[in-house]
Design a protein that fits this description.
alpha+beta; 5-stranded mixed β-sheet; 6 helices; 9 strands
């Protein structure tokens, strides 16, 4: 049987016939316009499953291959990476925007990281979490790169993983302002890109190389 070519930004489902997509929803924020577009395409194309993902994205599941491109056009959003070897998304908690526990602006930082680094090509997929306080509601310590807001600034962690072999991320630096976080994340991504094996996630890379070697390279 000839292998079916994947439509843009789509994931083949277990039935071998239908596809799923995850439109970009930076740090989980959705505008009224995006909500309207989602409602329209779900009805127009009779999409059977709409699922909120663990990364604060919305998956549309069950469409035919020929429907995918018209759906992207009707949505008017950027394509969300789902299987590519790159930065997939940045999730973030409300932080100081609304949460009474927030001590740092996690949404603002998360949006900046999303704008700068999502889609950056890497040896494997990378997911980021930005939490506005030590309660860590954005799962920062089990993301490839995690940021945690504290009273004295942001803490940056590397090498977390929440999959079948979970790993708590290692702390790389603490007490940083937003600009220093952005710069350090770039250094971590560059070092990982240049030294990791293909499809080696950050957690396994950190175990192989060691966090002290990583810190020595980026600090």
């Amino acid at each position: 049987m000839e292998k079916q070519e994947a439509p843009r930004g789509a994931i083949l489902q277990r039935d071998g016939q239908t596809w799923a997509i995850v439109p970009r929803t930076p740090v989980g924020l959705i505008t009224p316009e995006v909500l309207d577009a989602l409602n329209t395409v779900v009805k127009k194309y009779s999409i059977p499953i709409v699922k909120i993902t663990s990364g604060q994205r919305i998956a549309l599941v069950g469409m035919k291959a020929e429907q995918v491109e018209p759906i992207w056009a009707d949505l008017g959003t950027l394509v969300g990476q789902a299987i590519e070897l790159c930065v997939h998304f940045v999730q973030a908690c409300p932080g100081t925007s609304v949460c009474r526990f927030g001590v740092q602006n996690s949404l603002g930082l998360g949006l900046e990281l999303e704008k700068l680094y999502v889609g950056m090509e890497l040896p494997a997929k990378v997911k980021m979490g930005v939490s506005g306080c030590p309660l860590c509601c954005a799962s920062s310590l089990v993301r490839d790169i995690g940021v945690i807001g504290k009273k004295d600034g942001f803490t940056v962690a590397f090498g977390g993983h929440s999959g079948g072999k979970p790993r708590a991320a290692d702390i790389v630096a603490e007490g940083l302002d937003q600009d220093h976080v952005v710069a350090l994340v770039k250094k971590l991504l560059d070092f990982y890109r240049d030294n990791a094996k293909k499809k080696e996630r950050c957690a396994r890379f950190a175990e192989r190389v060691g966090i002290e070697a990583i810190k020595a390279a980026v600090l």
